[in-house]
Structures are given as structure tokens and as C-alpha cells.
Design brief:
The complex is a heterodimer of chains A (298) and B (297). Chain A has helices spanning 4-10, 14-55, 77-85, 88-119, 125-135, 144-153, 160-164, 171-182, 186-194, 199-210, 212-228, 231-236, 245-256, 262-294. Chain A is mainly α and 298 residues long. Chain A folds into two domains: 4-77, no CATH class; 86-294, MetI-like (MetI-like fold, Orthogonal Bundle). The longest helix of chain A is centred in the N-terminal third of the chain and has 42 residues, at 14-55. In chain B, strand 1 and strand 2 (53-54) form a beta hairpin. Chain B has two domains: 1-40; 57-292, MetI-like (MetI-like fold). The longest helix of chain B has 39 residues, at 2-40. Chain B has 13 helices and two strands. Helices cover 74% and strands 1% of the residues of chain B. In chain B, helix 3 (67-97) crosses helix 7 (159-184) and helix 12 runs antiparallel to helix 13 (264-292). A two-stranded antiparallel sheet of chain B has the order 1-2. Classes of the chains: A mainly alpha (298), B mainly alpha (297). Chains A and B meet through helix 2, helix 4, helix 5, helix 6 and helix 11 of A and helix 1, helix 4, helix 5, helix 6 and helix 7 of B.
């Protein structure tokens, strides 16, 4: 506390003075703060730059020392080579198609089940909910051996069915949509029911549109997972035309060995990343929402 | 009354009809497969011989006496601990910095999150170039400071470390998002009253923020354990478990036994061990969460 005279002089100014003081401190600490953030951001972004840089270097300059951090004459033909040397566009089409169909299937089965569990009082509802909850903890990777044998039995090895069908039911998606569908106000559903609407109509015309952002969040997150997944496509695909992007890429690096053409390889990797980044740019809000939602407790 | 009864019956029919597709799919491909893998773990079978042989728990006893398996287990824990002790504080730290809802904050949050979206195979390929023994950027950098270049991925003592770094690069942003969410849930009035009491920033973090976000920390810890135990793509692309088995983790061991040696029983037993461990971890999280949650006034 200051002396009494200070108080008298400063009192009328106290509020404004404090504001100025705080603002200044905020500025210094925020410069430090942003410097640290920038440092980490650069550290994280270096890989992307290194990929792009290498992909644009000509064969002659890939191994230059000191490294060419800014390709003066960008060698765009590396990308053409990357596409031409394998069935790369086919891999991308496979990945996008498979991911898309899985997600659509998951949304349909999950919406139906979630609606029933959240909104239709029926006998056995608790049991069904319990079964879905219990599968939430099963990581798919540990079931790949039995899944593989089932696919073999069905003669589905090296087919789109094998890439898609095992994932059409998602406990995670169902669980999430149950939470979302519970948020829809009962009055709206009651009103629709009085008007004689059936459950399909209510689900499709009322509940789904009202839960659009939850549906999109699940869709983005699961699409990313399946677009990126290597393990399962690696074990169930055999022919080149069935390969997904991760499988195709993994064969590229495995076959290259010692004489790796890093520039073309990086170009391939960048092409593989582009769909994911485009998706990220459009769906960032939903992706982030879905991740943060998964940490929320009821 | 009659109408009410039919409505009820109708509900039951509709309810089951709606739930059926998911139940069937999960029943076969998830729950059923766990049962199936439990059964397979009791067989001696290599896919080529027509008749699998029932051998009880022999696969488990063989697994537990296999030094390669224990090597894989210890490596998995090393990987888990090495990644988690870095990624937890780092993601908390970055989340604290990016906590406010500014546009620039969101931009950086997105940048840190981006590696999670990139296919692991693509980032692993870039990683193997980054850590290339001859011309990799990391070694060029070391040379610049007159430090000895390292063989990295071809050195049994360094390969796992490189994979850990990739994991940290990939998942930090994911956990930053979770932490930001946890931080934003802490009511501001708690901080305000601490400020009136003259608490310093560190005191506030230590005595208010950290205790209040323990549920988030627990959740992240569990996720990190699960993610690191299931890190298959990274190992497959970067090292294929080598050199000299130095990066064979449990999940990679499972892959080799099952899909390269076609030892279905052994691989199944490995899957069961992994499954039981992960269930145990999830259970711990569940328990710990209810114990550690701080109830706010």
C-alpha cells in the first residue's frame, strides 16, 4: 500500500493506470510466449518443408552438401515420375473410395442404432447398449488374425469387401451419436409423432439434420483413420490394383532399398498427404471438435 | 390400452430392427473375433496344415518362455515410457500457451494437429530421409556443429529412439487439443480468486490447473499408452522390427508371428496378452478417474 498522499493522487486514475500496467506486462510475456510457440511450430513444420524441398530437387542436387534448402530450379517432373512409376492414382482412388464407403456405412448403421437406443424405449435396450459399450474397448488390431481367417473363409482376400465390410459397424461412432441424439429436445419428437411421423422419418428428417456437426465429426475422424491405416490393407491385399495409399507407399520404400531416389519418393509421399491435408483444411473444425469431444466426460 | 400395447410392441420391433445391423457387425467382427482369437490361441496351426491341433495353453507357456517376446515387451514399455514422459509435459505446455481462443492460437493448434492427419506411412518415409545415415538433414545438422553423424535407423541402439521421435511428432497436436479443452473447462473465477490472494503463475499452474485437469491427464495417459502399444505403421515402414530386432514391439511381434510365420496360435496368444493388458489399463483409467476428479464448488 502507498502513503495516503499517493492514494489521494492516484485514486481517480487507479483503474486506468492498472490497465496500462497490465497491458504492458501482457505484451512482454506474450512476446516470449509467441516466440516459444513459433520455435515449436518451426520444429514441427520442418518435416513438411524438408519433404517439399527434397521432392523438388533434381537427382543431381539431392545429396548436395550443404543441403539445398530452396530448390532454385524446381524439378516438377519428380511428381510426374512418382505418378508414373506405380499405380499411384489407383491407390489414391482405392483409399478415398474405401474410406468413404466405410464412413457412410458407419454413419448409417450408427445412426439407426443410436436413434433406437437414445430415443425409442424398447425392451432389451439396455442389453444392446451394453454390448456396444463393451466393444468400445476392443482395439481392431488384436482381431486382425481372426478377421483375416474370416475373410479367407469368405474368399474375400484381395477384394474391396475385405477392406470395407469388417469396419461397417463402429462402436465409437454409435456411442458418440447416442450422446448427440440425446440432445435433441423431446418436444420436437413428440410433435412429429403426434403428426403421425414414423421413426424412419423422424430420424432422417429431424434427428440427423439437428445432429449434423456430430455426424460430420465422426465421419472426418474415422475417414482419417481408415485413409491412413496400413496394417489391415497390408495383410488383406495382394494384387497391385487393390492397394491403398499406405500399402503402395510402404512397398515403394521397401523396394527401393539402398539406391533410394529420395526426391521421387518424397514426391509420392506428398501426393499421398494432399488428400489428407485438403480434408484437414475443410474439416479442421470437426476434427478438432471430435478429438476434444472424446476427452469429455459425461 | 390396446393401442398402447401395440405401440409398445411396435417400439420393440423398431428398436431391435434399428439396432440389429450394428449388433451383427460388432458381434461378428469385434466381440466374436475376440472370442475367435481366444480360441485360436489354444491351437497349433500354421494355416498350411489342414487340421489345427488343440494344445491348450501351450502357446502361452511357449510365448512366456520366448526371449524374443520378452524383448518385445521390454521394448514396448521403453517406447511407451520414453514417448509419454515427453509428450505429456510438452502437450500441456503448448496447450497452456495456446489456451486462449485467439485466431492465431487456433492456427497454431491446427499446425500442431496436422501431423496426426498425415498418413503415418508418408510421415515415416519422410522421417527415414530426415534420419538417413549419409545425407539426412539431422546428420547434416550435426556435422554443421562438428558433431559425429549417427547411423540412426541402422543402429540397434538408436533406431527405437528415432521411432519415438516420430510418435511424439505425430501425437503431440492431438493431445494439445485435448489439453486445451481441459484447460478451457477450468472456471476463470478460480484463477481470479488465486490472483487476489497473490499467487504466482507457477503456483497457479501447480496448485490449481494441474489438480483440476487430472481427469484430462489421466485420459491422455491412457490414450498415449494405447497409441504407443498399437504403433505398428511406424515400425513397419522405418525398420521392419530391425536392426537385430531392436525395434520389434509387441504389436510388431504379433504381426510377424501371425502374418509372416503364420503361427496362428502364437500370434493369437500375443493378441490376447495385449488385449488383457489394454483392458487393464482402461480399467485403471476408469478407476483413477473417479478417484482423482476434483469436484468443483
Amino acid at each position: 500500500m502507498g502513503t495516503s498522499s499517493d492514494v489521494i493522487v492516484e485514486q481517480p486514475l487507479l483503474k486506468g493506470g492498472e490497465k496500462v500496467f497490465r497491458k504492458k506486462r501482457w505484451r512482454i510475456s506474450s512476446i516470449v510466449k509467441w516466440a516459444i510457440i513459433l520455435l515449436f511450430a518451426a520444429l514441427f513444420a520442418i518435416l513438411f518443408w524438408w519433404m517439399i524441398d527434397t521432392a523438388l530437387l533434381s537427382n543431381r542436387h539431392v545429396f548436395d552438401y550443404p543441403p539445398d534448402l530452396w530448390p532454385r530450379v524446381p524439378e516438377w517432373s519428380n511428381f510426374a515420375k512418382a505418378i508414373a512409376q506405380t499405380n499411384f492414382l489407383r491407390y489414391i482412388a482405392n483409399s478415398i473410395g474405401v474410406g468413404f464407403l466405410i464412413v457412410i456405412g458407419q454413419l448409417i448403421t450408427a445412426s439407426l442404432a443410436a436413434y433406437a437406443i437414445a430415443r425409442v424405449p424398447f425392451r432389451g435396450r439396455k442389453i444392446a447398449y451394453g454390448v456396444i459399450l463393451s466393444t468400445l474397448m476392443i482395439p481392431t488390431q488384436i482381431t486382425f488374425i481372426p478377421l483375416f481367417l474370416i475373410m479367407k473363409q469368405l474368399n474375400w482376400i484381395d477384394s474391396y469387401q475385405a477392406l470395407i465390410v469388417p469396419f461397417l459397424g463402429s462402436a465409437f461412432a454409435t456411442f458418440w451419436l447416442i450422446q448427440a441424439f440425446r440432445q435433441v429436445p423431446q418436444v420436437i419428437l413428440d410433435a412429429a409423432q403426434i403428426d403421425g411421423a414414423n421413426h424412419f422419418w423422424i430420424l432422417w428428417r429431424i434427428v440427423v439434420p439437428l445432429s449434423k456437426s456430430s455426424l460430420l465429426s465422426v465421419a472426418f475422424l474415422n475417414f482419417v483413420f481408415h485413409y491412413n491405416d496400413l496394417f489391415w490393407p497390408l495383410v488383406v491385399t495382394q494384387s497391385d490394383v487393390m492397394r491403398t495409399v499406405p500399402v503402395g507407399l510402404s512397398y515403394l520404400i521397401a523396394s527401393d532399398g539402398a539406391g533410394t531416389a529420395w526426391n521421387v519418393l518424397m514426391a509420392s509421399a506428398i501426393i499421398a498427404v494432399i488428400p489428407a491435408v485438403v480434408l484437414f483444411l475443410f474439416g479442421q473444425r470437426y476434427l478438432v471438435q471430435s478429438v476434444s469431444h472424446s476427452g469429455l466426460k459425461e | 390400452m390396446q393401442r398402447l400395447l401395440t405401440a409398445k410392441r411396435q417400439n420393440t420391433a423398431i428398436g431391435w430392427l434399428f439396432v440389429l445391423p450394428v449388433l451383427l457387425l460388432l458381434g461378428i467382427f469385434s466381440l466374436g473375433s475376440v472370442g475367435y482369437v481366444a480360441y485360436l490361441s489354444l491351437l497349433k496351426w500354421n494355416l498350411i496344415t489342414p487340421n489345427p491341433q488343440f494344445i491348450g495353453f501351450t502357446n502361452y507357456s511357449q510365448l512366456f518362455s520366448d526371449p524374443y517376446f520378452w524383448g518385445a515387451v521390454s521394448r514396448t514399455f521403453l517406447y511407451l515410457i520414453g514417448t509419454t514422459v515427453v509428450i505429456l509435459p510438452l502437450s500441456f505446455f503448448l496447450a497452456r500457451l495456446l489456451q486462449d481462443r485467439l485466431r492465431t492460437s487456433r492456427f497454431f493448434r491446427g499446425l500442431f494437429f496436422l501431423p496426426y492427419v498425415v498418413p503415418t506411412v508418408a510421415s515415416a518415409i519422410a522421417w527415414s530421409w530426415l534420419f538417413d545415415g549419409n545425407h539426412g538433414l539431422v546428420n547434416l545438422f550435426l556435422r554443421m556443429f562438428h558433431l559425429p553423424a549417427q547411423p540412426w535407423l541402422s543402429n540397434p541402439n538408436e533406431a527405437l529412439f528415432v521411432i519415438m521421435l516420430l510418435y511424439i511428432w505425430q501425437f503431440t497436436g492431438y493431445f494439445v487439443v485435448l489439453y486445451i479443452n481441459g484447460l478451457q473447462a477450468v472456471p476463470t473465477h478460480v484463477y481470479e480468486s488465486a490472483m487476489i490472494d497473490g499467487a504466482t503463475t507457477w503456483q497457479k499452474i501447480w496448485h490449481i490447473t494441474l489438480p483440476l485437469i487430472t481427469p484430462t491427464t489421466f485420459f491422455i495417459l491412457t490414450m498415449s499408452i494405447i497409441f504407443s502399444f498399437l504403433s505398428f505403421d511406424q515400425v513397419y515402414v522405418l525398420t521392419q522390427g530391425g536392426p537385430a530386432q531392436s525395434t520389434t514391439t509387441i504389436i510388431y511381434y504379433l504381426y510377424e508371428e501371425g502374418f509372416q510365420f503364420y503361427d496362428i496360435g502364437r500370434s493369437g496368444a500375443t493378441a490376447m496378452v495385449l488385449f488383457i493388458f489394454l483392458i487393464f489399463i482402461t480399467f485403471l483409467q476408469f478407476k483413477g478417474e473417479s478417484k482423482w476428479v476434483h469436484h468443483q464448488m
